[in-house]
Amino acid sequence: MEGTLLFPVVILITLTLIIFGMFVYNRVALQQQAGVASERAAFSWNNSRKDPATGAFTPGAGDGLYWRLTQDGILGIFGYSGKSSVVHVPDTSVGSGPAGKLSRAAALLPPGVHGSMSYVNHIWERKVSAELEKPFRTRSFLPGNVIRDQVTGQGASHVVDPVELIRTVDLTRSYIPAIKNRITASKAREVLTEHAAEAIPPTNAITSEAQASAYIRKLVSGRKTELITPEGDKRTIDAIDAGGTAHLAFYTFNEKNLKEQMRKDILLKKEGTQVKGIVWHFFKTKSGKAPSQAIQRELAQNGISVILHE
Questions:
Q1: pTM of the complete model
Q2: What domain of life is recorded for the organism (predicted)?
Q3: Distance CA 26, CA 46 (A)
């Protein structure tokens, strides 16, 4: 008697568990199919000639250089071209643009699956989504709505574009350092200052070191500054022009003093960060004194230019 009463209950529970397991299996399988379909579409998004399953394509075949502007649903952010980025499953028509890419991925779904696939482009985020349904007829053996007659699955994948990323990174690496800190607004105005109205005296009127220094500043539109050599010595620069070249004026000098100044300037030039180049200007005194040929050769050997003003 007990067996007669319990056996139908055990059978019913067993069948329910089996059917529930089949429902869960079908749901997981459909979820996996939705994920695979969205991944295939996202993987082949940068070239509509790619095979969505293998990624193979004919070398040289592509969508053109500017497809991201004209065939990527970018106007969807303004409410345009939104419908063309949604296709229904099954869909045998293969168009162009986002709809065509979605259709090629949807065509690989197994028979009996229906739903939709969509693509949205928010510029900062591009995503392919799939929402699928499949009938679950086995539930008809159970009374009521214990288990639904449809299983559903969703999947989504983000479109990544390595080619565009590499191109953007290369562009940034190439141009940002080239324009960063090139010149400030104040420096630009300083470079564009017109000095024609400022009278520059003739060199034969120069009779002191101070006059020679002032002459050089007017001549190159530079400014006087003080630098520190890599060894920690102070070096007064008579004028630094807009290009970063240091100009030094000499009126009264001796060989020992010139060699000491040369040592500092060679260090600054080798360092290459505070000055871009160095020019020594020698002004002829009343006695006609000029730097020796040995000094001039040593300066030239170390990349320091020499100008003798008459």
A1: 0.48
A2: Bacteria
A3: 32
